[in-house]
Structure formats: C-alpha cells, structure tokens
Amino acid sequence: TLTRVNLTMERKGTGQYGIQAKPGSSLTITGSTIKPIQTDVRFDFHIDGARFVLRNSTVEGLNDLEYPFNGGGLFLKNTVDAVLEDNTINHRDTVAGIQLFRCRRTVIRNNVTTTPVRNNGRALAMQECHEGVITGNRFIRGEVLASGSHNNRFTDNELQMTGEAPGVVLPGSGYNLIA
Hints:
This protein is mainly β. Helix content is 0%, strand content 45%. The protein is built from no helices and 22 strands.
C-alpha cells in the first residue's frame, strides 16, 4: 500500500524498470504521484491477476509498448474488481494511457487521461473485458477502444477529440451501454 507517496523513477543504467503486481498479490495506491525524474524516461506499470486500487493519484511517464508485447500505459491483465478513481494519467508516446486485457468488473471513474498529440492515440483500450463501469472520465485527445468486450457501462464520459480519431470504437463487442 502506498498512501501520500511521491515516487520518482530514476534510471541510472540501461534496462527496463517499473512497477509490477503479480497474480495473488494486492496493490493499493492512494493520494500519490508516480513519475520519472527524467522527462525522456518511461517505465512499465503492470498489474497481472492482482487486486488493484489506484485512487486520487497522478501517474506520468508510462512506457510506449502495446499489448500483446508488454502492454504499455497503465496495463491491467486478468484483474477482477480493480478500481481506478479520481486520478490524472498523463502519457507521452504511449499507445494507450490505460490498457485492460481480460479484466472483469473494473471501475474507471472520474479520471482525467491526456493522450499525446499524435494520430491513433488511445486514452483507454480494453480487450476481452466484461461488466466494467467507465463513468465520469475526461479523455483528452484519445479514443476509447473496447474490442471483444461485453456488458460494460460507458456513462457520462467526456471525449475531447482532435484530428480524425473516431471517438469510441467497439469492434466485436456487444451488450454495452453507452450514454
């Protein structure tokens, strides 16, 4: 558990570094800031099968990899009942600020996610995710993609789009509420 912590990542050598929660573990972050000390440095933030809560926090400097390789952005995989609430997620050069893969009952509420100015950037990417609640978020310059995802509720979200991004894309998905 991290509460009111300022965590700065500093790379002193080559190699990958980041935050990871593995199956069976639990990670709760509240009222904290996580970012790299150098603006050109990125880090991984992977949650795989762990219980996860991120609340009232700021996360910056996420990696730029896309699933199925390593999962860029804030990457949740195989989670149940994860909560992301009242956060600011700023990412540069990442494919998606928040990526979910095979997650169930995820709550994404009242977050601000800013996507870099570039084509095809995503604020939120969901693949095979079900029964989630995505509400009250501001997605700035990034589309929302939910592929193969069912029975999710997308309500009261604000998308501030620029360029030709399509907004909300739901290929192969069904029984989702968008309001």
